[in-house]
Amino acid sequence: MTPASNERTSLWRATRAVVWKDLTAELRSRELLSAMLVFALLVILTFNFALDLDPKTRGSVTSGVLWVTFIFAGTLGLNRSMAVEKDRGCLDGLLLAPMDRSAIYFGKAVANLAFMLIVEAVVLPLYSVLYNVNLFRPGLLLMIALGSVGYVAVGTLLSSMAVQARTRDMLLPILLFPVTLPVLIAAVKGSAGFLSGLPMTDIQPWINLLLVYDVIFIAVAFIVFDYVVEE
User: Fold this and answer.
1) What is the dihedral of CA 185, 66, 218, 220, to 10 degrees?
2) Residue 228 pLDDT > 80
3) 89-94: long-range contacts at Cβ-Cβ below 8 A with a sequence spacing of 24 or more?
4) Quick one: pLDDT at residue 92?
5) How far apart are CA 62 and CA 191, in angstroms?
6) pLDDT of 45-73, one tens digit each?
7) Is the separation of the CB atoms in 140 and 148 below 8 Å?
């Protein structure tokens, strides 16, 4: 094997180890996922009773309600994910481990994405029942997946920065929401387009924006993560 191939294999193994660590720890404690699910369900139920609207109007606000739920539950998960590592001293151990530090970023990002997707998998059928809206459409699921990847890619990097601050619970949303605004706009617009049955030519620009955003910020996070955690 070439040195480049060995490096890629080492990165993959280290990333897989970090993901496995996070998933195993969460299966034992159920702290992070439980908090995200409870928060998401409370938001959905609150909107259900607050938006006592006719079916047509409910359909028009569906994408907005969904993404408000996903984003706030995701932010809670991102904050807790890194805070737990910091409070338990695991973050220092990860940084001292003899591996490429980008593996820490990718491992945490994949684990955070898995938690967010689990929450979305619970929210979608519940929302469909409460609002009588069919959300299991391939295009809508694609927008949710792309939006979640972009949000987690940036959120994992920024949570690594904010975890060192005393006011980390307040600092992360302040840093995160302005940076992820393109993701939120594209995800809401694209999701609404699929729910409204708009032609693909009207929705394609939002999909392209999400794809470009995801690729750029994953690459940026890969480059700067080492410097972020050093600080």
Assistant:
1) 50
2) no
3) 91/163, 94/18
4) 65
5) 9
6) 888 777 665 666 666 788 888 999 999 89
7) no
